[in-house]
Request: fold
Amino acid sequence: MMMDSLRATLLITCPDQKGLVAAIAGFLAQHDANIVDFREHVSPDAQGFFARVVFDLSGLAIARDEVGPAFAPLARRFDMQWALYFSDQPKRMALLVSKYEHCLYDLLIRHKGGELPVTIPAIISNHPDMQPVAEFFKIPYFHVPSAPGGKAAQEAEILRLLAEVQVDFVVMARYMQILSAEFLGHYPHRVINIHHSFLPAFIGGKPYHQAYERGVKLIGATAHYATEELDEGPIIEQNVVRVTHAETVDDLIRMGRDIERIVLARAVHLHADNRILVSGRRTVTFS
Amino acid sequence: MMMDSLRATLLITCPDQKGLVAAIAGFLAQHDANIVDFREHVSPDAQGFFARVVFDLSGLAIARDEVGPAFAPLARRFDMQWALYFSDQPKRMALLVSKYEHCLYDLLIRHKGGELPVTIPAIISNHPDMQPVAEFFKIPYFHVPSAPGGKAAQEAEILRLLAEVQVDFVVMARYMQILSAEFLGHYPHRVINIHHSFLPAFIGGKPYHQAYERGVKLIGATAHYATEELDEGPIIEQNVVRVTHAETVDDLIRMGRDIERIVLARAVHLHADNRILVSGRRTVTFS
Amino acid sequence: MMMDSLRATLLITCPDQKGLVAAIAGFLAQHDANIVDFREHVSPDAQGFFARVVFDLSGLAIARDEVGPAFAPLARRFDMQWALYFSDQPKRMALLVSKYEHCLYDLLIRHKGGELPVTIPAIISNHPDMQPVAEFFKIPYFHVPSAPGGKAAQEAEILRLLAEVQVDFVVMARYMQILSAEFLGHYPHRVINIHHSFLPAFIGGKPYHQAYERGVKLIGATAHYATEELDEGPIIEQNVVRVTHAETVDDLIRMGRDIERIVLARAVHLHADNRILVSGRRTVTFS
Amino acid sequence: MMMDSLRATLLITCPDQKGLVAAIAGFLAQHDANIVDFREHVSPDAQGFFARVVFDLSGLAIARDEVGPAFAPLARRFDMQWALYFSDQPKRMALLVSKYEHCLYDLLIRHKGGELPVTIPAIISNHPDMQPVAEFFKIPYFHVPSAPGGKAAQEAEILRLLAEVQVDFVVMARYMQILSAEFLGHYPHRVINIHHSFLPAFIGGKPYHQAYERGVKLIGATAHYATEELDEGPIIEQNVVRVTHAETVDDLIRMGRDIERIVLARAVHLHADNRILVSGRRTVTFS
Reply:
């Protein structure tokens, strides 16, 4: 089946210039690679070029390890930032959780069902509560409570764990602690957070209460890359659900859970499948 | 056909208390009125009661003019704010417009097609541009430019016109001027504005530019009752449409037009059909 | 908290006639019941009347067991079909499953999280596969394989189990067998099925393949009461998700799972919360 | 501004094979064309390749008229079906209408507002009713009634008109007559129809009545290329809106109008902007 073939994905960001598509496609043709998906975007100010190229590894004229080195000179010529991924090396994702379980369950079930192209070497939590869930799904669970040494010590321990299990990216699945700028600096654009509002509306800790007070007719959720400014990182995905005057705050919380998990799952899928490029405060998402 | 029968609508707001539904329905049964729609809402704090009751006038045991006086003692007993409307007396709606034409066209076409239960005695604008549209749809057009006497003089002239044509409510169909608190005081919860964002996100004059900069994945529009605090009035209706990184600001403006007109039309319909009750900063909308 | 108060829900279907609301509300007022939610619907042909009335049991002037008997004469007078439910007696729901797990997980997690006002005395399956899931969520699991005696024997065993654990309604959570008319006759309008298409489009067993072949731009799911005519029962809830030419059949299946579980969960919630009345092939859903 | 630059769009369909992207992009690079948008799709069976390439004409090393002839040998080599369009030569669109006006108004207002990259040389109708609308928007109106010579004579006259005003494609804006296979043969995949249901549900003439009878919870509309099999042509765009038991057939008709016009406008935009390629019964829409 087509999906089972071995594939590589090339992500490229560079200044826009003539001949880019020809150069990239020409390079791949020269090595007998069959392009199965080519997406590109030129920013409206005509400055930035963003591309995602998926090609088949079968029939490639060079070894897969030689593709990157062979591409490097071309990348230098066009001043590219680039990365190359192989479909048989899924990204390693760590989950940070607290006591809310809906997003955790959702990602674990999707993973179990083969929906998410990742491996999950660790679930890390500041509470012990989710340990049985981790065990049921056979994922290692690490309880890293708020330490006597304070937040810095706790974050240091989490960073140590992430390094130990060689994580590629981190998902805050309703993790109820704020990560420091220093922590995030270790995983730039590789920590995904889910905020339970339609950002930039209702920043902060009580968005459903705020939504109720304001009397909005839709509530939403937003997945974004966490940055040092709270709730200000590049948005990956958003969605909303209709509400009425009849819903209580508890109803909004309940209804919001469905949106949170769908939005987070979609963002995780986009990231894991190498479909996101960051452009300042915006994301280019080739969905 | 059922829809053609003569009907009355009773809108009621009062403190919640036992026996309200029985008292209201009992009153109507006593006068042989057939209830065709009964909707009520008790606020989650169990304080406020809101109801909309539609009943058939055919077979009513008293004259329609006597219904209100007969209801008054009961209303006093329960401390009700209430209003009674008849389906053969559609509300009189004035449209305020500037140079954007999409919402104006939309409301006029719906009105012409029989969708909106209103009469439109006036279109008022600070510009002459929309006069031909008004003529085509046979609606009187009044050009009230920014006056030498300034905004106060202009608003005074608009108020005079609204009174002269006996308007029940006012719709700002992308009217690009801010109405003063004094002006709005003449039509409390009877001036509907359409804001081109998903409030409370992107308050102010350039929401599509802000949405582009922030990189949101959905854009929206909000219809609300205009109050003296800009973009802070009770929300009547909201909707959104999905956008991607590929859309320019101009694309957002174009795509937003569809949401603006659908949201505004829906809000106008709800108001004209007596389906909205205001509860502080929130609306109860029996849609 | 308001939600914790003890409540009763009265569901009523009868021919439309004058004085119904007054009679129902009057009865409740007479016994000092406080109505917290009153919803009614008169069918467009003005023949049928459908109502859902929720009232507080605190302060009621009679014992809760006396409410039904006291209401019966009034019900007879108006030729009502009616039922009375109490909020501290949640419905008993059985789940029928095969090998698909997404809907099963979804309902169990919602139940565990307190979202669904039901108890689950049994999960019944024609396969053993879901037993570990049932164990993790501490729900009794019954494996009823296709019997040598054939389908009739298998259904008889399921009926026996349902009776033994005193089930109020049954949910086919992607149960891959067709239930006979005889079986369904034991639970009229009490067996909920989820069909993986937007009915009436794509009836039958391969809706995602059909959707792909037809090239639709949205795929959907439908929850309905199972009747002897396959996929023809009264629809409770539907939803859709946008797809493009780029999605394979496998993608549609994956994306459809999200819609299936949301639609099924919503239908189960509506049924469990006594919000559905059946009117021929249609449902009145007071959501 | 970027949007004002002169651009060309190349649409390509051919069997999939290695080197296609490189060949196309290489051709354009060779002539100093700057690619501003490149989209491609390989069908899941890995047989078909579909591409849309937009490039800037400024700085092109050859005359625009020479692009096509220069591309032809390459196209032959890869067995391509292809077409080349220039942004300063908008497509010529004819509108077929009967007595429903909402889609007609909608397209004319969008056109007037600069939303649709088309010219409209003719509105053709079997009724005289829409003539004033055409006049207001300054579009030539042709009344072609059901002729004594029957349908064939009427269609012949319409074909004559379409040829005379040199139409590129035709939009049936709720045109209430069925076009013959012979007629459609003159404009293969160039006649867009709007059907007032979510196809393939509710084929035929009374979809809203059918939707009401079936009790669906969403109603929809479908824009498709008309083919000789009624309502079976390749789907371009679909959308839905939520309805409840409370809506009458008349309500569905009213609510459906909003979906019809949005779906039709979007389909027209996709076609006019050269974003659709047909693949059997499916469309590839690079939106």
The CA atoms of residues 54 and 196 of chain B lie 33 Å apart.
